[in-house]
Fold:
Amino acid sequence: MNPKAAAALPKGGGFLFACENEPFTPEQFGADERLMADTAFQFAKNEVLPLLDRLDAQEEGLMPGLIKQACELGFGGPDTPEKYGGLGLSKAVATRILEKLSLNGSFSTTIGVHQGVAQLPIVLFGSEEQRMRYLPRITSGEIMPAYALSEPNNGTDALSVASRAALRNGAYRLSGTKMWISNAKWASLFTVFAKVDGERFSAFLVERDSPGLEVSREEHKMGLKGSSTARLILEDAVVPQANLLYLEGEGHRVALNTLNIGRCKIGAMALGQMRSALHAAAKYSKERKQFGRTIASFGLVRQKLAEMAARMFAAESVLYRTVALIDSAFSAREASGDEYDETRKACEEFQIECSLTKVLTTEALAFAVDEALQIHGGYGFTEEFPIARLYRDARVMRIYEGTNEINRLFAFERVMKRGLLDALRDGAPTCPAHEYLILAARNLDASKPLGQELTACMSDLTLLTYAQQSANLRAERMRRENVQFADFGVDAAKQFEASATGWAAARCAEALARMGVKQNVSLSSAGQPRDVADAVLESDGYPL
Ligand SMILES: Cc1cc2nc3c(=O)[nH]c(=O)nc-3n(C[C@H](O)[C@H](O)[C@H](O)COP(=O)(O)OP(=O)(O)OC[C@H]3O[C@@H](n4cnc5c(N)ncnc54)[C@H](O)[C@@H]3O)c2cc1C
Structure:
């Protein structure tokens, strides 16, 4: 790529001081891509939803059968290259497919792990021989993979794993315990992280029938009951030397870059479940009567529906903007460079956006399931309605793939490490939350350690800026191109702006107080809330 073209490419964190001209939005999907997404949606609706009780009871063979069926439709590896049996689609289209498959948490986690963190290490860092050996079997659904990083005593602090590997007589011997491994019950291949000789953090492809490997009992979880989560016990498990993934001592690159892209997969999974929550809330509010009227006619119920839809609109705008940016980084990889270095750079470019996307989408989901349950009143607290399961299943989304606390801290620490603070301070605001972020950034003394509490305030301001900006740019484009539901988009963005501006003002005030800066933060730029409840009620849920 010539230097001029390279300089014109979007850069990670660029939203902090300017907007790309036209961020990608879901309205840009072509007819074929919509058709594929709709096939995924119909599959989830017709094949998965009728089985939820049986899936939650872990009926033998049911979930693996569904995964096989989904793989036969091409959903085993939508963004995996065709050469390895995938569909070779962009990350944006693959994300839409996963979103539409994700109407239920258990199925979403199982297929999300299959397509995502469990397959990505091989796609991104496998040798050609490893890719050819495993990927066609994974994408076709012949085998299921799993990703084994966490341990009983090392969760967030994942790079300090206690698992050990030693090379003896041409094979590695792995020992340790891996905890919380999704898909473990059904998986035939595990990406396991361990330290060679107690020092070099490395990734290994471990087949299920390796001597010394045992999958232990299922965890008794509060939600996602239809998914499998179990421990792996490795006792001198024998792993051929050829199954070292990438390089000894470079396992952190495999682990962290996989999680980075995985965070957008989580975003898709969260949006799918949000769609279910809005559908349940809209439907119930039209049926339930109190005081002789449907509860959908009450202002406070309408306000909940409107805010849920607005947050979903913002979360969706952020997710598709981020994955399209990652697509741009992947397509800019230099064919002449080292393939793995180029891939690593592409994965890392939009780390800030990936972490923000994970936090925004999962917290929008948390809000949606909570308010949807509230709309159900006491009935929401029973298993009679689907919202109880959605509520339970959603809870873990703020915990796995890096807790939201860690993603918050990471996002703003990256802003500082990438040297973006000066450009942020000098930039012109692109939305109200951005004004508060710039105000806080101008007062920040970066020569002193910020502490976690202040970092989290700055991160929230960063997150609200990214969300408001993305929602507004999308709404503006919808209006300009006069697409279907453009009015809804414009009103949803306004509604989000009104609520997010209030939150940004509060976070800015806290940030300044923590810095010891005495300054009043006014709320003058908060927009007028818009009522998008009619659109939600007419569409029986999220209209787009
Ligand atoms: C259903 C389920 C499926 C999972 N699937 C997988 C999988 O397939 N593969 C896999 O490897 N793992 C998986 N995990 C593990 C998951 O990634 C971890 O649970 C997560 O990383 C958190 O680790 P932990 O549970 O040990 O919590 P801890 O790390 O003990 O954290 C506890 C609390 O302390 C906070 N905390 C920790 N460190 C800090 C810090 N430095 N600063 C501020 N706060 C901090 C956390 O945010 C959290 O609130 C799964 C977990 C669940 C529940």
